[in-house]
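Objective 1b: paired records.
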Amino acid sequence: MNNNDIVPGFDDQKDDSLNIRLQKIDGIPGCLVLYLTGYIDTYNSNYFQKRVAKAIEAGFTKLIFHRGGLNLVSDTDIGSFTAFLKAVKPLGGDLVMVEMPPKVYEVYQLLGFSHFFNYRKNVEQGVAFFKQASPFPKIFRCTYCSEFLEAKRLGVVRCAHCGSSFSINATGEVSQKSEIEVNHAQGKETYGETTTREITVMLVNIIDYASLCERMPLDVPRLLNQQYFKPVHESIEEFAGNIGEMIGDRQSAYWSGKNNEENAILACRAAITMINRIIKDSLNRPLEQQFKVNIGISTGKAVFMMYDPSLIAVGPLKNQASILVELAKSLSKKILIDHETYCKMPNRLKTQQVETKTVKDLPVYALLGVYK
């Protein structure tokens, strides 16, 4: 059975840079495997999108993309698959990627798409995804070491390779968990319960990190993710912080202990330690692989789900931290903190007020050190 037998007119157009072979899955209405060989770029993306759109118009809304033969990833690549997902979701369909090369997955991860799509090891597991109504077993990659992990039910999965923990909710969505959050997910807090708590949020901007990775060979970003983020993650965890999401160039973290003053101090100590570690680490790196950071720290009230603290309503706080990061970049400052953070224990913080700069009409401070 050729492509035109499965989707009439599919092969009426072809492109030498991208070959697409179709396989219809019997027993699952609307399920189609697309074997991709070549590459997707600006020049052939229109052809690719039109071919897949033709398959969707023919009633195939459960799409499995075999990516083992694709040897290039670009913004156009990601944009195309995002468009396909948006097209099939309203029709009750979904999208699964299989045989995805680790190097390509690294780029998706660095750009914040590691949990946006469904990933499976092979076509058989992709078909199994659509055979069952439940999202389990859920197959996904560890965001630290890229090992495949399997969640058989909602709860917590720990990576045996690097020890990282992840929470999987009832819909199969994955979020990274700290040790405190693991305890919550194991039943020490009630599922669905919310609470209001003052927390301190940190946003770390790794300057030009995504563009740096795009300029490097695809095997380098994986090493960057595992080794270069080591001083960032270690500094957060050393001072009892919770590592949050990373999108693009920015890594988030937060401190939500019962002692509000201590939360702010721990975040500030983590920031100072992080800067020192990055400077020390950069001395052993080639110039083209060195990176710098700007850090913004904000303190205030937040509402979050006890079962899944990653679903935390920190929009305003994260926005404030983002503003501080942008100010730090424009002023060539390494760490800026807001007024609420400064007021927690000003006698323990070595700071310098940033003249004429405010957040919510309150002063902003450059953090220079933390007194013991």
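Objective 1b, second protein:
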Amino acid sequence: MRRAREAGFTLLEALAALAVLALLGMGMAALLEGATAARVGASRAVARATVEDALRIPETRLARALPVPRPDGGRALRGTPARLDLVFAPLPERVEEGLRVGRLALHRRGEETLLRWCEGSMPPRGDPLAALADAPCTDLARLPGAARLAYLVDGADGRPRWRDRVGPADPWPRAVRLAWAGALPRLWPLRIRALAACAGGGCP
């Protein structure tokens, strides 16, 4: 009996070994889960920083938006949930370029939304926004999930309301809102500026 005992393991020893292995496995799983969560958190932080950097481009342009009149009446401004076309004053360091036209566009690509900015020079005649048809575009960032634009416009009663569309005949929007999944909406005020002063580079 002693030789048989020395040649193998008792049931109690086998159970103890299994328990130790289970504890080791649980510890390894926890370490792997923690490392994965850290990588995901770091990746999301980088994505947020990338989006913040990308949003500075439309943010600086929308801050200089101008209510330029159209030849057929109204203002050169068109907004939908997926696109905003507008005229803006040149940046202080680029005054010689004159008035500019810009387009903030959202393109849904699977589970993401591509944020794109297009910009060109305003034509001297005709529809100011017509130049956007050939304006060069830059892909700024990929936003998670669906994204959409909205516009804060005064209603007939004088109360501002969020709308998903704005056109040349509508009142000048007080603000533009960009919202996307998993983030607080970004709000950009639109001020009424003196066109003559801004066209000469005097916009603050």
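Residues 37-46 have pLDDT under 50 and may be disordered. The helical segments are 2-7, 11-62, 195-199.
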